[in-house]
Specification:
heterodimer; A: 89 residues; alpha+beta; two-stranded antiparallel ribbon; 4 helices; 2 strands; B: 269 residues; alpha/beta; Rossmann fold; 8 strands; 40% helix; globular; disordered C terminus; MinE_sf (chain A)
């Protein structure tokens, strides 16, 4: 199939979009010196500390680096187990 | 006169730092400004050939720093323009011969004499880059719409901000409108969103740059080529003028482009 037809049918992501997505991730890690492995360690230790005080579901925790201009932010979304139970009950 | 010191840098090599430095210096000189450009890439000097002044070098930056000549003697005047000067890099000497404080001192001496001091930084983040950054009032980061160039530009911007040397202004060089239009090249908005800095110029890929560099005549000497015009526009923005950006990556049809061409008086704006 020719290139333009593939694009017309939306079968292929444009390479510029791929470049942008890849760069987004690379820059976040470059700027913070936080590798994915380090972020994983951080997440595990954070969970251990929080679990000491409140009950959480480790599988539902999302910890991410986000970008705000040239500022990096560590964003943690940690659903509490008790809160969820009361909502469903 | 109190000169503004503008450092042109990029991190990655080969993105067009020297071409940008030469053309902005030329463009400002054609606007009647008194400009000195300094090649800070010791050991790999190139600004002289891009400007077409390679046959006139007697003294260089290291000679000035080490006191073998006076500053004035190392300033080569470009005879095509009223007030454009080059201080060439040393070609053979130890690249550690110049320090950041040497550069600052040299620029302080030049400052009262001229309107603009342009420093062409070497690639990388080593000593030569630190030398070029030390006296900067403004930093122009040159990049291409490619992953490696954008990544390195981000590193450089981070260092410049950490050293509090701003403001940083971005020049997106070698933009290919055809590739951008079909989605195979990062466009200006993409790059600005990624790097989060202020844009000061978009320069299209233009074979005239290669042709003019072959001859030692920077494209900005006349505004006939699109790249030459883009550099002249950046120079005017540096002078505080509000000049609209070249619209290269729009997906506009032929008719729309044509009307824009007519409206802007036959140039690509």
């Amino acid at each position: 199939m020719s290139n333009w037809l593939e694009q017309l049918l939306g079968k292929k992501t444009k390479s510029a979009d791929q470049a942008k997505e890849r760069l987004k991730l690379v820059l976040i890690h470059d700027r913070t010196d936080l590798s994915p492995a380090l972020l994983d360690n951080l997440k595990n230790e954070l969970l251990a500390v929080i679990s000491k005080h409140v009950e959480i579901d480790p599988g539902a925790v999302v910890i991410n680096l986000t970008q705000d201009g040239r500022e990096q932010r560590l964003v943690a979304d940690i659903p509490l187990k008790s809160a969820r139970r009361s909502r469903s009950g | 006169m109190v000169a503004k010191v503008v450092t042109v840098t990029s991190g990655k090599g080969g993105v067009g730092k020297t071409t940008t430095t030469a053309n902005l210096a030329v463009a400002l000189a054609t606007l009647g400004q008194k400009v000195v450009c300094i090649d800070a890439d010791i050991g790999l000097r190139n600004l002289d050939v891009v400007l077409g002044l390679e046959n006139r070098i007697v003294y260089d930056l290291v000679d000035v720093v080490e006191g073998r000549c006076r500053l004035r003697q190392a300033m080569i005047r470009d005879k095509r323009l009223p007030e454009l000067y080059l201080i060439p890099a040393a070609q053979t000497r130890d690249k550690n011969a110049v320090s950041p404080s040497d550069m600052s001192r040299l620029c302080e001496e030049l400052r009262p004499e001229v309107d603009w001091i342009f420093i062409d930084s070497p690639a990388g983040i080593e000593r030569g880059f630190r030398n070029a950054l030390a006296p900067a009032d403004m930093v122009l980061v040159v990049t291409n719409p490619e992953v490696s160039a954008v990544r390195d530009a981000d590193r450089i911007i981070g260092i410049v901000e950490a050293e509090e040397k701003g403001p940083v202004r971005l020049i997106l060089n070698r933009v290919n409108p055809n590739l951008t239009r079909r989605g195979d090249m990062l466009n200006a908005e993409d790059v600005l969103e990624l790097l989060a800095v202020e844009l000061i110029g978009i320069v299209p890929e233009d074979e005239n740059v290669i042709i003019s560099t072959n001859k030692g005549q920077p494209v900005a000497l006349d505004g006939k080529s699109r790249a030459g015009l883009a550099f002249q526009n950046i120079a005017r923005r540096l002078m505080g003028e509000n000049v609209p950006f070249l619209n290269l990556d729009s997906g506009d049809g032929f008719l729309k482009r044509l009307t824009r061409l007519f409206r802007s008086g036959g140039t690509m704006g």
